[in-house]
Amino acid sequence: MRKSIAIAALLVTVLTGAVSVQANAVPTGNIITAAWQPVARINPQKAYKVQIVNQAGIPVEYASTSNEFAPRQLQPGATGLLTQLPLPIYLLINSVDARFNLKCSVSANQNVVTVTVRQLPDDQPGNSTVDIQKTGGIFVY
Fold first, then answer.
1. With the C-alpha atoms ordered 26, 32, 34, 37, is the resulting torsion angle positive or negative?
2. HSE-up of 35 (CA within 13 Å, CB side)?
3. Backbone angles phi, psi at 4, to 5 degrees
4. The 3-state secondary structure of 56-113, one letter per residue
5. Where are the alpha helices (DSSP H) in 1-141?
6. Do 100 and 76 contact (CB within 8 A), yes or no?
7. Quick check: 73 and 92 in contact, CB under 8 A?
8. Considering the entire predicted model, what is its pTM?
9. What is the CATH number of domain 39-140?
10. 43 contacts 110 by C-beta, under 8 angstroms
11. What is the dihedral of CA 4, 9, 12, 14, to 10 degrees?
12. Does residue 53 contact residue 130 with C-beta atoms inside 8 Å?
């Protein structure tokens, strides 16, 4: 019963917006990432590159939603490099064989975005879009 009351109180707090968060607070301890937080950042004022590393063990295909380049295939173990991309850009990365789910992990270092593509088990949903925004924030979904 106490557990139900605690859960109900938490739900009411969340639904009513009673939790206050200081706008300029610096988080301490473990940071929980959420869908609206970028997974990495670049400096949008400088040139940047995107390298796509295929560790999926199967061929993958990548393209942009705004057709900056023709769709390209990337064989297992290979790396593709993209330069001079406009911001914002949405990169789509998919398995050539639709039966396989992929996971894209993203990191950025010195304005080089590295997208590492891995295969997931069939029962796990993956992601296939890398969104690099005008602000330099990078999201994966």
1. positive
2. 3
3. -65, -40
4. CCCCEEEEECCCCCCCEEECCCCEEEEECCCCCEEEEEEECCCCCEEEEEEEEECCEE
5. 2-16
6. no
7. no
8. 0.74
9. 2.60.40
10. no
11. -100
12. no
- The whole-angstrom separation of Cα 66 and Cα 47 is 19
For 93-131, what is each residue's pLDDT tens digit? 999 988 889 999 999 999 999 999 999 887 788 889 999
pLDDT tens-place string over residues 35-73? 578 999 999 999 999 999 999 999 999 999 999 999 999
* Tokens describing residue 49: 């590159």
* Cα–chain center distance at 96: 20
Domain boundaries in the chain?
39-140
Phi, psi for 8 (deg, rounded to 5): -65, -40
- Token pair belonging to 128: 């296939």
Asked if residues 106 and 115 have their Cβ atoms less than 8 Å apart, the reply is yes
